[in-house]
Write a structure and sequence with these properties.
Helices cover 32% and strands 22% of the residues. It is α/β, with parallel strands linked by helices. It has a seven-stranded mixed sheet. α1 crosses α5 and α4 packs across α5. It is an enzyme of class 3 (hydrolase).
Length: 204
């Protein structure tokens, strides 16, 4: 089964393709199919993910999968949340993962409460107006480091220290990180939902 991924993020595509491998699905980046990016006007992950999935399905005629993810920092009352990708731009930096990390560490300088969570919400639709979208949420809690550590992963992976492993996500082997990240946890749930609600129905 081909599924269009409502993202142009190469790291996200590679991570999700590995996670969805057991289903025999092929994820295709929306940019490869000429799909324009969807507006993301909402303040919750699930609403933005649904908008992106519907947009990708509308332009391709394929089932679509969208991920809306972000960093929720206790000290900031859960922000930056859905605005994570643009976090650096609030402080005069160009948009980008490396600048997001720089801006975050600057804003967290001297802050004792370093609790934060990476959050991922996956939404899948069979068609643009699918009345029964599949929704899966994953959360990985950790502590923000004082500086980036590790070279694997992307986004805020180098500054999120996970107590369970005693390392940041960017220090973990890719397969361990994928299985335990916020996106990995959401993907496990989504794979099961697709297996029981999409593939089972299709096999009848």
């Amino acid at each position: 089964m081909k599924i269009v991924l409502a993202s142009n993020n190469a790291g996200k595509l590679a991570e999700l393709q590995a996670l969805f491998g057991p289903l025999g699905c092929t994820l295709i980046a929306q940019s490869d199919l000429g799909v324009p990016e969807s507006p993301e006007p909402y303040k919750t992950f699930v609403e933005n993910a649904l908008a992106k999935a519907r947009n990708a399905a509308q332009h391709t005629g394929l089932p679509a999968l969208a991920d809306d993810a972000g960093l929720c920092v206790d000290h900031f009352g859960g922000l930056p949340g859905v605005d994570t990708a643009y976090y650096a731009t609030q402080f005069g930096y160009p948009k980008g993962d490396a600048n997001n990390v720089i801006a975050l560490l600057e804003q967290m300088r001297g802050v004792e409460n370093r609790r934060a969570a990476l959050v991922s919400t996956l939404v899948a639709v069979r068609a643009p107006y699918d009345p029964e979208p599949l929704i899966a949420m994953g959360r990985a809690e950790g502590l923000l480091t004082q500086e980036p550590v590790g070279s694997n992963g992307f986004g805020f992976d180098p500054v999120v220290w996970i107590a369970e492993f005693g390392q940041t996500f960017a220090q973990l082997p890719v397969e361990v990180k994928n299985a335990n990240s916020h996106r990995g946890r959401a993907a496990k749930i989504m794979v099961q939902l697709m297996r029981t609600q999409w593939l089972h129905v299709a096999a009848q």
